Each structure stands twice: as structure tokens, then as C-alpha cells.
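Bench notes, afternoon.
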Amino acid sequence: MSEAEGPATAARLYYADANLREFDARVIERLTWNGRPAVVLERTAFYPTSGGQPHDTGTLNGVEVVNAVEREADGAVVHVLAGELQGDAVHGEINWVRRFDHMQQHTGQHVLSQAFTTALGADTVGFHLGAEVSTVDLSRAPLSEEQIDRAEALANEVVFDDRPVDARFVDREELAALPLRKPPQVTGPIRIVEVAGFDWSPCGGTHCRRTGEIGVIKVVRVERRGAETRVHFLCGRRALADYRRKNRLVLDLAARFSVGDWELAGAVERLSEEARANRKQAQALQDQLLDYEAVALIAGAETLAGARVVRRVYADRTVDEIRHLAQRLTAGPGVIALLGLGSTGEKAQFVFACSADVPHDMNALLRAACQAVGGGGGGRPNFAQGGGPDGTRAEEALDVAWQQLT
């Protein structure tokens, strides 16, 4: 046992060999953790959640390990189980797919963080290894696409170099001589993960043996967070799965548009331009229809209180549509528009408007109408909007407004 390594660290087998998939040990404590049975072992290969890296899963004598937690009081690894564990002698098996995924992401983070520091002077101030994507928070913002690409390229050069990755405990003298990317955040034995000739960082996590095992490192999203930049990235199998999904999507879209994948961006832009032109044309036609409808409604409207009153409840229109219709009805002189939406199972909505030369208060009319449907609303004397929960009483509400005009 080295000077920097104590009994507690020696009992964690993943420190010496992160590739260890099975081990034997004895139970030294049984307890309940958040309502589940749990055990502490004399030694373990299960990594507990810490340092931004999630816990391992696996089995002990075939019983599922659903969580591994570092107990704050003494640093012991508590193995939280799906059921009761029989016997004190146990055989542990690590969920290797999960473990290796975490090794790829965590080692990739070390490389990517150092790449950002080296290429851009952007230091890592936060790290999270997520179930689908991992993130690092950088001390600089904003960062351009060119800058992100430069750091990403450097990180992948280190991967392609297939450099050795060494994890070891060091004494104080050696620690002081290392060019650490960040200072240790813990007291006691310090474990350094070294990416040969590139990065030296204090870390207790599980890591690949060589950078080539990381696989490609891909930045998939960047977001500014005040004075910092959050970088979302994928490594190894996650990056491959992401590429496979996106490649299939691109090829499927290209086939749908009958173009090559290299022509897809241009095809999408052309379709976007066509869609914008079609929407503009459709809006112009809709406006013309509303104008014609407004003329017809005014021609058939009753005259009341010195104005032509258009009164309608619709079941198949939107609030925007009846708002635009009300505006067209009242663009000329002498018109009051009492328009509503209402049907069974839907809320009632109203738009009341009047021409500029009409002296009636639409706001007061609307409030009276909305009371009939258990709601409210408001606006100006010449335009008001509101509603209530009972759409079946929309006609009754317009009757109230009509009576206010008489």
C-alpha cells in the first residue's frame, strides 16, 4: 500500500482496476437505506455516485444492486439492493455496459476539458455525466462555432493518439510537482488521473486505460449561461448511436425530398421559402374572404341603437379569426360587432367591437356578457375581449349584451 493510499481507498477495487467486472467479498454490515435492504462489504468494485459520475449497478449473489452510495459518516460504500441478500460471502458482478459507458464519458470529459483549456483558455467549472448526454460548464462566454470546433478537434487528436491513461494515488511531494488542470477538492489521499503528456487531474472516477477506448468525442450542443458556456457532448458508443440516428434521419429526409443528402440543406431552404410565400398568399386570401364576409354580415344586420349590429356565435373558428372579422366589420362607420365562440365542452370566448363613430362602451357590454358564462374580460370602449368556462351559454351571453343596447 502506497504512502498516499489508506485502507478505505484500498477496499475500492475499481481504483486499481476499473476493468474488473467480478469480485468476491464478505458482508461486514447490514442496514436499511431509504426503505431498501443494503450492505457494506469488506471490499467492492462498485463505484458510488460522486464527482459528477453516477453509480454502478450489477448484482451481489444474483440480487440486483440498484444504487451505490458513499456514506458521509465514514466513507463506506453502501450497496442498496432490490431484495434481501442471503449469506455473508458474496460474489459481485458489475453491469459492464453501464460501467464502460461511464468510463468513456468521464475519460472523454478529462480530454475535452483540457482541450478547451489548452485551445481557448476556457477552464471547466462544472461537470455532469448524464444518462444520455454529459455536460461541462466553461469559464468563458460566448464561444464561436470555430472555437468549439478547434477544441473538439484537439480532443479527438488525443483520442486518435491512443495515449495511456494512468490513475494513481500520489504523495504530497509528487502532487506539488504535477501541472494539475484543477486543484484537489478533497483532503486525504489524492488520486491523479493522467492522460499521458496532456492532462493531470485529481479524480476518483473510473477511466479507460487508453484514450483510444474513449472513441470519438462529439460536441452536440452549446448554450450560453451568463458568463459561462455549457457544452453538451457524447463519447464512444453514445456518439456512435447519435451519429447512426442522425444519419438515418438525414438519409430519410433526403429520400423524401428526392435529393442527395449533400443537397438537403438547399432543398429545405427552398421549401421554407415556398412555405413562407404560400402562407403570405393564404393570409391575403383569408383577408379578402373576411372582407367579403364582413360586407355580407353588415348588409344583413339589424339596426339597433343607431348602429348596424352584427351578432354571431361560431363553433368552428378561432379567437384570432373572430378578432380579425370584428376589426373588418368596424373599420367603417356605424357598426357594432358582438362575436363569440361557444360549444358543448368548450369555453365561451367573445370579441366585442364598434366603429369609431359609435358611442357605446364595448368594455361594459363585454363584462355583462361574461357574467352570464361565469367569466370575465376587458378592454377599451371600442374593443374588448373575454370569456368564461361555459361554452353552451354563449348565445345567452350575447342576448345579455343585446339587451344592454336596447
